[in-house]
Design goal:
The complex is a heterodimer. Chain A is mostly helical. Among the domains of chain A are: about 70 residues, no CATH class; about 200 residues, no CATH class; about 90 residues, no CATH class. Chain A has 28 helices and 7 strands. A 3-stranded mixed sheet of chain A has the order 1-5-2. A two-stranded antiparallel sheet of chain A has the order 3-4. Chain A is globular. Chain A starts with 18 loop residues before the first helix and ends in a 16-residue tail after the last helix. By secondary structure, chain B is mostly helical. Chain B folds into 2 domains: about 70 residues, no CATH class; about 30 residues. Chain B has 5 helices and 2 strands. Chain B has a two-stranded antiparallel sheet with strand order 1-2. In chain B, strand 1 and strand 2 form a beta hairpin. In chain B, helix 1 crosses helix 3. The termini of chain B are far apart. Classes of the chains: A mainly alpha, B mainly alpha. Chains A and B meet through helix 3, strand 6 and helix 6 of A and helix 1 and helix 4 of B.
């Protein structure tokens, strides 16, 4: 067995009969050799096997035939048979190849005025040390991927000799160092132009194929370090964050857990160790500061025409490449690898369950939100700044429209429509009463629609929807009495009965118990619905009752945890701490507010919202209000801030250079 | 080898003296009923089944393994290739400052 191995036998036809041939010859055939034997008689799906050895990179790892199977949806519908071929990749090779590719992409960003970065070597070394914490802390994730996993730079042999051959770790650290180093060199001549090209983070998603890391974490951490060095910090917020960090570290229940990050890969902690928590606390702080540093330094060079054009190009390419990935298997695999996707693109042009098509994105909702924002920004910002559209830009606008329609994100579509309507209404009437009147009209119409069309659902039923779903999701270990139809007290939503079950048998999470007690025994003003009930009713109409019910069934914080959270990107406690019927798979909160409640607690969330609203009040430009309102409306029911590009975008929108001093390309202004 | 031994044979508190084992022609490895038999092979394709941690560690120390890719240390090749590339690029960068021109 050498480093480079030529197959003794040529590849043979890809069909189910030859499965054992390929299974016995792992690490033998490259993807091109395999595809040359694909005669098109079967659907072939190419998948990534991240636990490969370096010498097997790009070669077949496993081969499996999935026969036709009945889809369990009550109808006689079959899922077509297909052949799955896994291709080996490797942690270190992926880190190298994908980073080189993305750094080359960055080099295409046009150069501008230079920005000098000092002590590049030192900061690259610091960044490397930070990412060393990552590989140490997430032992469970990486140990499963490679037998070479070893975190000791130097170890001792049995006879006491020093062992310096941990090339796995040396390679990893060297690559992180090189990425940081080369990025800053590239950044020196392009830094002030990065802002204009930020929309491309949605296209080049940046997640490594075999690591729980995102390329932009490395880049923005470097910028975050420079923001500290150049003293671009808000000391009050820093001290506050430090206080929260101390709590998170002291409160951490150190456990050997490996959380299946699935489509959140690259921006979520897979572990519950102190080291991993320190990493994510530091990295989150650095990337947010890094983006803010980038915005402050680049404001004078911001070009709204270029930014708008890049939003349109990025969204168009995402749609087009999504279509390509759906049609062609090689395109699907290559886009997964070189765009750094969290999840393979859709392999079909058909929507999932008849409604959503996510294309390349890990979440149809998140991408729908982005598409709608592209449209919103293009329309509102252009109108505000009196910017014309070129013919190409009008044509490109079609693609986010198509993408948005296919994503079927009703919240994004309706919030887009409402915001645009309010914007133009405000522009035309210029009356301060317009928006409150409009909102009053919406509420009135909604109530009328409910009373006319949804009367079949009683208020009692709707006002406890979430609680009902939460109870169904809980593992109640008590023999409950049933009625003549066999329905248990839980199914009958008899909350008083459930609250009287002993705590150790009821197994209700602290949050669910609190909500049920509030609903059942809370002080109610006659004819005035409580906040609890209003949220329950509202959740029904936005299709979030079940999801939020599951969230509250699982969310079992102590008092300090509900106030201060578990730390940024920490899901393990929420996910595993409390037994429910949903402790498998990936059940997300389906609301950014709920996710951030887990991360930062009520106090943290309140501070974030207070800072956003304080910022909005101080804004002289009302555009910020429209964009941030759009995002806040969507955050109610989407998990978008669990994805790094969306976080970068919202930080950008909050600190956006809205002032009219921004540069605009001469050709586009009247 | 210490790390590789832990991966192949599992963890143990024993501190083997391979030299002493190698110098003793009468040394016999005792089977450990709590140790799950591990099949090891060498580069020539010879196979041995080991029944104790000490026996396993001894064979691993001699270059045997339970995973064929261990015979090729891809990480080592790639590491030195990358070092070589960095040295070359470092020289080119110093002479021509090409990173500024990129």
């Amino acid at each position: 067995m050498g480093f480079y191995h030529i197959a003794d036998e040529p590849a043979i036809e890809i069909n189910p009969v030859h499965a054992s041939f390929y299974q016995e010859r792992a690490c033998t055939y490259s993807v091109l050799e395999l595809l040359s034997e694909d005669l098109g008689n079967y659907d072939v799906i190419l998948l990534n096997s991240p636990n490969g050895d370096i010498e097997c990179f790009g070669k077949n790892s496993w081969y499996e035939y999935q026969p036709e199977k009945l889809i369990e949806n009550g109808w006689e519908k079959y899922e077509k048979d297909f052949i799955k071929i896994w291709l080996s990749t490797n942690i270190n090779v992926d880190l190298l190849i994908q980073s080189i590719f993305w750094l080359i992409i960055i080099s295409f960003i046009p150069k501008t005025k230079e920005k000098k970065f000092d002590k590049i070597f030192l900061f690259s070394l610091l960044n490397t040390c930070l990412f060393y914490l990552h590989i140490v802390g997430e032992k469970g994730f990486y140990k499963n991927l490679t037998r070479e996993y070893d975190i000791q730079l130097v170890s001792r042999e049995f006879n006491g000799d020093l062992y310096f051959e941990n090339y796995f770790l040396y390679l990893y650290l060297m690559t992180i160092f090189l990425i940081s180093f080369i990025f800053i060199y590239l950044a020196e001549s392009r830094f002030k132009n990065f802002l204009n090209y930020l929309p491309f983070v949605f296209l080049f998603y940046g997640t490594y194929a075999s690591l729980n890391l995102n390329f932009y974490l490395i880049l923005f951490s470097m910028l975050g370090l420079y923001s500290i060095y150049e003293k671009h910090l808000n000391m009050k917020i820093t001290l506050l964050y430090l206080g929260f960090s101390v709590f998170w570290l002291l409160n951490l229940n150190n456990k050997d857990i490996n959380f299946d990050v699935d489509k959140l890969r690259g921006f979520i902690n897979s572990s519950q160790s102190t080291t991993s928590l320190i990493f994510w606390v530091l990295v989150y702080y650095l990337i947010v500061n890094g983006v803010i540093f980038l915005i402050k330094e680049s404001k004078e060079n911001f070009d709204s025409i270029i930014f708008r054009r890049n939003l349109l190009i990025s969204s168009s390419l995402i749609t087009l490449l999504g279509l390509s990935a759906a049609i062609n298997k090689l395109s699907n695999y290559i886009s997964f690898y070189f765009l750094g996707l969290n999840k393979y693109g859709m392999r079909s042009l058909q929507s999932v369950e008849g409604n959503t098509w996510r294309g390349l994105a890990p979440s149809a909702e998140g991408m729908g939100e982005f598409y709608a924002f592209v449209i919103l920004f293009s329309i509102i910002y252009s109108y505000e700044k009196k910017l014309n559209f070129s013919f190409l830009e009008i044509f490109l606008l079609l693609f986010p429209v198509i993408g948005l329609a296919r994503s079927n994100n009703f919240a994004a579509i309706s919030s887009l429509a409402v915001i645009i309507f309010i914007y133009f209404l405000n522009k035309k009437t210029k009356s301060k009463k317009t928006i409150p009147l409009f909102l009053f009209a919406i509420v009135t119409v909604s109530v009328l629609i409910y009373t006319q069309f949804f009367r079949e659902f009683s208020y009692n039923y709707l006002s406890s929807n979430i609680l009902y779903e939460g109870v169904q999701a809980s593992e109640i270990n008590h023999d409950m009495s049933t009625n003549q139809d066999g329905e248990s007290q839980a199914q009958l939503a008899n909350y008083q009965y459930i609250l009287e079950i002993p705590q150790e048998k009821a197994n209700l999470s602290s949050s669910l118990r609190f909500l049920i007690e509030n609903y059942t025994y809370g002080y109610n003003i006659k004819y005035l619905p409580s906040i609890n009930s209003v949220i329950n009713v509202g959740s029904y109409f936005i299709n979030r009752s079940e999801k939020w019910g599951i969230f509250f069934a699982k969310y079992d914080p102590s008092l300090s945890e509900i106030l201060l959270g578990y730390g940024p990107q920490q899901f393990t406690d929420y996910y595993f701490a409390h037994p429910t019927k949903y402790n498998f798979g990936l059940f997300l909160p389906h609301s950014t507010f709920l996710s951030y409640l887990i991360f930062f607690g009520l106090i943290g969330m309140s501070i974030i919202l207070y800072l956003i609203f304080k910022f909005l009040l101080n804004q002289q430009n009302s555009l910020a209000l429209y964009f941030i309102t759009y995002f806040l409306l969507n955050f109610i029911k989407s998990d978008s801030l669990l994805y790094l590009p969306n976080l970068l975008l919202i930080v950008l929108i909050i600190h956006f250079p809205y002032s009219s001093k921004d540069k605009t390309s001469k050709n586009y202004i009247e | 080898m210490h790390k590789k031994t832990n991966v192949i044979c599992g963890d143990s508190d024993l501190k083997p003296d391979f030299e002493a084992i190698g110098n003793n022609p009468n040394f016999v490895f005792e089977n450990d009923p709590n140790f799950e038999t591990v099949r090891l092979f060498d580069l020539e394709g010879n196979i041995v089944n080991v029944n104790s941690w000490l026996e396993c560690a001894n064979y691993v120390n001699g270059g045997w393994t339970n995973y064929s890719s261990d015979f090729t240390n891809g990480e080592q090749y790639l590491f030195f290739a990358l070092c070589g590339l960095i040295i070359v690029l470092g020289y080119v960068q110093k002479k021509y400052n090409f990173l500024k021109k990129v």
